[in-house]
Model the fold of this input.
Amino acid sequence: MSAHAMKMLNTLLLALVAAFSATALADEEQIKLKEGAGRETVMANCVMCHSIDYIPMNSPFMKKADWQATIDKMVKVMGAPISQDDIPVILDYLTKYYGVE
Amino acid sequence: MLNRRTFLKGVVGGFAVTGPGLLVPRSLRAGELPIGATEGAVLAALSGKKPLIKRTYRPPNFETPVRAFSDVITPNDQFFVRWHLANIPQVVAETWRLKVGGDSVEHPFELNLDQLKRSFEPVELFAVCQCAGNRRGFSDPHVPGIQWRAGAMGNARWKGARLKDVLARAGLKADALEIVFDGADYGAIDKTPDFIKSLPLWKALDENTLVAYEMNGEALPHWNGFPVRLVVPGWEGTYWMKQLISISAMPKPEKGFWMSTAYRIPKGKFPLIDRFLSQEGEANTPITEILVNSLMTNVEEGQHLRAGKPTTIEGLAWDGGYGIRTVEVSVDGGRAWQEAQLEKDYGRFSFRAWRHTLTPHQGGKYVLMTKATNRQGSTQPYEFIFNPAGYRNNVVQRITVEVA
Done:
């Protein structure tokens, strides 16, 4: 059993319900990223681990290289299962709509 | 450029009326958040909390509004919320257990909440919990991360058992190097590094380091780590493990991401006093103690004050556990300083409230600044010591008010 699975199991033993409040989730869904090519790919990959307010909060001061470093961190450090095909789509979207030259 | 003569012309009754503040270094200007962070920062209430400044919903990161700091004790329902991982279980007191073990203990054991409260002498102390990234949003240039203003901190009266007493019951072996802590939270996916932190043995054995089960006379709020969190007075909040479920004494340095990569600062740039030797690297070193800092709590940028009318500036000062010696206030952009009156002392790890009354006689812009000095002689810088994660921002605050 992985450490993660073990912790989930332990958590079930010591907790009644998982997690964040329903209110917070409802509020989270009101956040809308800017329309544009790649938006759906960003949504499909990023929201599995965190709310998307992380993106506009960190804007608009990151250059393409900074967004690349962020995506790399998410994949290599945080273990985000983002496909190689999706990475350039996400990078272009974030740079165009939430980045600076 | 404003010359000295023009500048001094505005000095009336000890107060200078400054122009556009050109004599003040650029970094001293009131920093501003990235536009996206300002637009996204709505007031929102987590369950059991008053509305706080929402930075992110999931994991939840919520900031205390500055007006809540009018009280030297931060109310539980306004205490800031900071989490790294999205799964935060609703821990039930009756089934919660704390595991105490690791390779460097003789007798590992488990505790329930009643046992923690009854088996060890309870200790109470006031201490500031401050996120290492507090004020990150003011970094110039901006750096990625939670874009906090000044409210990722709070001061509370904590009650709990001494960590050293808990460890003594397990019996530390001679090779114990670090004490490692884990909370009940975990990431949304398997591969995300679990949030695990460690302390050097000497800090873990400090008599002020607590395994805390009360905050301001009540159980801890869920969002602040119910039922038990670590309290590490004088050190940044990253070590104050919430929803504590395990304590392990280890003979080797903890190598996880949250120790080896996160919460580190470039070596040699900061006046670091508390050393965490087993975690020091070639280029960087873990954040340890809180730097001396201060905050004005009852004035806002652009606020209007009446000429000829006494106005009392109120605020807080704090540091990494030496205690505050003086707080000085300037109304002329940092040229002349006057000592503020310190209020009641709640101990060397607590916020120290202060106040200073001024009467501006002439209309114009006044640049208010505040600067704390601790009992060790450390004070606040005028320039931010830039570092890639925007940690440890204790730059002298600067607020421009209009007098008419």
Remarks:
- Chain A has one domain: 22-98.
- Chain A has six helices and no strands.
- The two ends of chain A are 46 Å apart (CA to CA).
- Residues 22-98 of chain A form a domain with the Cytochrome Bc1 Complex; Chain D, domain 2 fold (CATH 1.10.760.10).
